[in-house]
Amino acid sequence: MMEKESIAKNLVYYRKQQGLSQERLSEKSSVTVRTIQRIEKASVNPHLDTLKLLAVGLGIQLEDLKPLDNPKEESIQTKWLLLFHGLPLLGVVVPFFNIFTTLFLWVHKREDNPIYDLHGRKIINYNISITLIFIIAFIALLTVEGYGFLFFVSVVPINFAIIIFNMFYVVNKQKCYYPFAVPFLSLKRKAKHVLIALLVIFSSCSAPTEHVITRLDGSKLTLDSLEQKVKLLIRKAEVHGLNMAILENNKVSYQNSFGYKNFEDKTVLTDTTSIYGASLSKAVFSVLVMKLVEAGVIDLDTPLESYLPKKIYQYEPQTRWHDDYSDLENDTLYHKITARMCLSHTSGFPNWRWFEADKKLRVKFEPGEKYLYSGEGMVYLQVVIEKITGKGLEELAQEKIFTLLEMDNSSFQWQTQYEADFAYGHNKKGELYQKDKDNEPRGPSTLETTASDYALFLEAVLNKKLLSHQSWNEILQPQTRIKSKRQFGPLSNEITDEYDVIQLSYGLGFGLFKTPYGWAAFKEGHGNGFQHYFILFPKTKSGVMLMTNSDNGESIFKYLLELSIKDTFTPWRWENYLPYDHEI
Fold this sequence. Notes:
- The protein is an alpha+beta fold.
- It contains 20 helices and 13 strands.
- Strands 5-4-3-13-12-11-10-9-8 form a nine-stranded antiparallel sheet, sandwiched between helices.
């Protein structure tokens, strides 16, 4: 709590010191106004990446915003800084050694704390500069009589004095000052690459190993190999943008973006680009519902109509269409529908009412009887919850999911701050779809998020955050078996035993099937220009997330799943994930 208050106080101070409004700071930092407001109210513990963006927007250092966590960390930090600032002494004994040792330490510590990155850069700049000065002084000694000697003999004591001064300065103030330092690490990116290359050459004896992905079958995959093959796939299949995250040991171990958020003007897609989540919304919504179940707001097996003082069709619609239930006035089955049925797609509602021949909503079979994928079922559950709680879906989701997981760039409705960085959907030819920005919040379908945010949600699922273990077990256990030949289309009405071997089922908001590595939990997302998929293996603490803004996206899912984590189990035919090179 003290850290949140300290960050809030610092943020308000530096923002006002520079005469910036919250809106102006949002523009400069790409952090949403809503997030800035929550940080300044100390109502959220901001993510480190968010603080970095704010620091850049304010033109200050990260440590000016974020206090140290505890005195012990401060003591450890001071020792590391002393080591950093003492390393230049090595140059007095062994020429160039001061540069390479400091560079080695900086590369290995800069991600641990921004102060190591800041001080490391300054020391490396100074070491290179003083070494060049020493070389010049030595040349002057040989070529310039008198003054050349004075210049040469003065370099060492001046260097020694600067080093000792900074060692004391960093202990007392955690600051440093190096005159004569040329900012090599502030020049073009290529200069940094040269320095890092030098480090690799001189530290090759340590034989550093590249990070590799350990896949389900125990095989290893290097990141270079992964990225080369991913780039080849998206080029061959003409997938216009891809966000990928791989999870190991219950956390993201690899995350990267490929391609474009706008293929026409070639603007690059990133993991912080706002992207339409489509039916990935349903997994989030199911967790929200279980939070309300745990709070006693709703029960999984109580007919939803019993919570309302009047029939659902008697309510005046408050939205453009999704809470209009006038079609159900003569329906004799809807009153049996429960929350469990809505989340497991056994409510009997169609996917969407407009898919019906007459565009009218109806229950197509006895609720609870069998599986039929239904967005309408989840919307019905959402509407009942909103009437029970007196709160809208967006308010509930922010309160019970997004804030707690620091998903600061996620919402069930479009936010104006997304305008600065959002992904367009593309058809198969690479043409842009018009971006939907007027969707009213709907639990099964309107999530706007980022790859980074949704990866946080998947980490929460694997780590069983937000809910009790009992609730997670309820969500991730089969509620109904799936017997359809395909999930959608004409073949969805045909019955098959093809998937009995993997026990293809649905839990609460998540699809499920059995593998040699335990039960797998998955969810798809599919809309015009957006095709997504994730699969998690809780037993092995692993998974992968794929998010694309292309109608060609699903044509590489089979290959990406096999490549990234050796998932050969996803029922890709049932999903209709036909590969781009599939021969019909």
